[in-house]
């Protein structure tokens, strides 16, 4: 599950080594591919495991300026976890989670880290495509911001 893999990558970045099985059980496999709606389950996982993190959810409609949102989140050294709509991103059904690694403010390209295997794991996408993939979908999607506290 891409959401479990994203949480694992965030934890690894901060030196915490948990298996995907442990994480999946810890969040009760209950994100149900609706990651942006379940910051509470991620926060509960952090609390139970005494991890110094806090997660906040931001739906697309809550973000006035997507470029600024990404730039400021990265500046604060927070992790940025995005839930995307697959038909816009990859031309297949469903949703998918990735991490945002960087943004080039000159080219408006966002570097994503993707846990899915059939394509490159790190690649760039134009910001406007991400904007469409979180808002013009069958339901509103967005970001989880994970910050160390």
Primary descriptors:
149 residues; alpha+beta; Cathepsin B, Chain A; 6 helices
> What is the mean predicted local confidence, pLDDT?
92
- Summed up, the helix count is 6
Assign the structural class, choosing from mainly alpha, mainly beta, alpha/beta, alpha+beta, or little secondary structure: alpha+beta
What strand order characterises the main sheet?
1-6-2-3-4-5
- Distance between the amino and carboxyl termini: 26 Å
What do we call the CATH homologous superfamily? Phytochelatin synthase, N-terminal domain
CATH fold topology: Cathepsin B, Chain A
Share of residues in helices: 25-40%
Name given to the CATH architecture: Alpha-Beta Complex
Number of strands: 6
Q: Please compute the radius of gyration using only Cα atoms.
A: 14 Å
Unreliable segments of 5+ consecutive residues: none
**How many discrete structural domains?**
1
- Write down the oligomeric state: single chain
Question: What features would you describe in this structure?
Answer:
With 149 residues, the chain is an alpha+beta fold. The chain has one domain: Cathepsin B, Chain A. It is built from six helices and six strands, in the order αααβαβαβββαβ. The chain has helices at residues 2-13, 20-26, 39-48, 66-75, 86-89, 127-135; strands at residues 53-59, 79-85, 95-104, 109-113, 122-126, 142-148. A six-stranded antiparallel beta sheet has the order 1-6-2-3-4-5, sandwiched between helices. A hairpin with an 8-residue loop joins strand 4 (109-113) and strand 5 (122-126). The longest helix is centred in the first third of the chain and has 12 residues, at 2-13. The radius of gyration is 14 Å and the shape is globular. It starts with a helix and ends with a strand.
